[in-house]
Amino acid sequence: MKQQTKLSEEQQQQSRQVGTEQQTQKQSAREFANAEEMLRYDAAHTTVPPGIAQRLQKSTGGATEPKTSWWRKFLRGNL
Amino acid sequence: MNEPAAGCEFVKEPPADLASAEFSSLYAENSRAIYYLALRFLGDPQKAEDATHDVFLKAFRKLDQFRGEASLRTWLYRIAINHCQNLRQGWHDRHVFSNADDAVWENAAARTDSPLRVLEIKELGQRIQKTLDGLPDEYRLLLLLVADEELSYEQVGALVGQSPDAVRGKLHRARKAFAALFEKTA
Lengths: 79, 186
What we know:
- The complex is a heterodimer of chains A (79) and B (186).
- With 79 residues, chain A is mainly alpha-helical.
- Chain A has one domain (2-76).
- Chain A is 70% helix and 4% strand.
- Chain A has helices at residues 2-28, 35-44, 50-60, 70-76; one strand spanning 30-32.
- In chain A, helix 3 (50-60) runs antiparallel to helix 4.
- Chain B folds into 2 domains: 14-96, RNA polymerase sigma factor, region 2, helix turn helix motif (Rna Polymerase Sigma Factor, Chain: A); 98-186, Winged helix-like DNA-binding domain superfamily/Winged helix DNA-binding domain (Arc Repressor Mutant, subunit A).
- In chain B, 66% of the residues lie in helices and 2% in strands.
- Chain B is built from 8 helices and 1 strand.
- Mean pLDDT of chain B is 81; it is low at 1-15, 97-105 and 107-111.
- Strand 1 (30-32) of chain A pairs antiparallel with strand 1 (116-118) of chain B, so a sheet runs across the interface.
């Protein structure tokens, strides 16, 4: 009888866990009407590597270097 | 019409600070779009980083040649597309791309018109890449350009050498092809 109760508790716990997982999946689910919408979402979550701006600063040389480097401003988000 | 004020001097080349300010603004406004195009077109983050650097370097060197006939975004896309296509052209000699058979897309059932659903957002990028890799270059490029809300069908058409109507027609087929392949990546 005691074992039955324990099993029942375990089953209930498992059931609760499955419910939580399903809820989590439901929360993280996304629907997109078409491919472009999905690509837009993907693009918005894509980070441009900061190394590109730094490499560009080197590549463009000091010919147009202002007092504060444009890429420093860019990385600081001052643009 | 605004006439230049008397005594106003015209300069043939912009001052260095001005060129730099223009370029920094150009980079800030367009780097994400160009990087994303390179990333998904080439399918390799390191190559995309190199390509984005090269595209903006070309733009920096040719900024004075920009004639204003197109938007700066379109001009940058043109440089990026040429650059990425040249890179891919070289790879084709060394790699075999497994494009799915055309019949798969032509026969794609109506179910592919339903909303595309993903459960794990972190997997989205990988699945998108896999899907795009399976599409012909033409469809891949078209979808990536149309996804940029700043571009009109006319601008997309100019970039891919098609009329706006042709873009709309091909876009419909590209969407179906994308949806059919995307389902297979699950």
